[in-house]
Amino acid sequence: MGEKQTNNHEVKKINRNLIYRYVCKYGRVSKPDIAKALGLSMPTVLQNIKELMDWGLICEEGVFESTGGRKAKVIAPVYNIRYAIGIDITKNHIGFALTDLSGSVLIHTRQYKPFVNERQYYFELGEMAEAFLNKSGIPKDRFLGFGISIPGIVDSENEIITFSHALGITNVPCSMFSQFLPYPCIFTNDANAALIAEMYRISDRSPTVCLSLSNSVGGAIFYEKSNGLEGNPVNDSLYHGDNCRSGEFGHMTLIPGGKVCYCGKVGCLDSYCSAKVLSELTDGKLERFFKELENGNEKFAQVWEEYLSNLAIAANNLRMAFDCQVIIGGYVGSFIEPYLSYLREKAAALNTFENNALYIKPCHYKIEASALGAAIRHVEAFIYTI
Ligand SMILES: [Zn+2]
User: Fold this and answer.
1) Structural domains of the chain, with CATH
2) Which of 94, 113, 233, 291 could form a disulfide with 380 if both were Cys (CB 3.0 to 4.6 A apart)?
């Protein structure tokens, strides 16, 4: 009897979760839609809808245009019932982004704050985070916590940052960063976080590789095993590797005996495709590089031509290895769209099997993707408790 009760309870929770996710995915649905799509009986749907409405997670929002019979009520998600804040730690800046259950950036800010592995830095990080939280004006009882994006290798299981070249740290416990943040904190590698943000917003979760082109080159690999309606938290579908070092595309050898990489080796992709290759020509201002490129700067056109050729090799290599779409992300990813067809042309010319490179996609988020993805981990964890 006890076991049966547990099972009934579990089935009920699964159904409720399914219904909630369905409403979130489609935004505006009717009760008959839900019953039909999920193969549930109307009484089950009605009971769960009532519960979800009592909890404030969904609401009725008018009626659909009638297609003959009685007009069906519109069921819609209520996103502002919970919030999370993402913090993107970089070598010289700290970015903040607020999201709710919709998983979109509501407000964001970025402040100059060079990283130093000292108590004072962590103290100020705590103060800045608290100030951003207060400024956002959200009720504290709706705040899930901070998601923290780190430009380095994050061993989530042991809650330790094993290595970060950008921050110059080795084996630093995550608790150092969160010591002045008295809220739940989740840590995520920056490229993984950016891919979490990208995958959260799209319903088609086909396998995806992200090539992140910021001041260093990184990446992330997404592969969802069960593609059911229930979906899994995106993070659970990221491939982390034996040492949490998956997606370190920046240190694949692109040119044997080539330029010296910051890692100490030569010819790494990072030396040819990091954003610095471009921004070092404009005092670190990548936006200025693209502006001058647009204005016909010949020297920049040459640099960009070479950059795109190298990027095409990298994209084609990833296509050959993973046979899935490749998102171009990071700082350069946010400027890539006008040059996408040219990049695809170059990549297609290298491809053994295809005569186009439509698998190359631009990233959706141009700002604070890593902060957002880190925050979304709280959102996904919350949704799983429903
Ligand atoms: Zn390297």
Assistant:
1) 2-77 (1.10.10.10), 81-196+369-383 (3.30.420.40), 205-362 (3.30.420.40)
2) 233
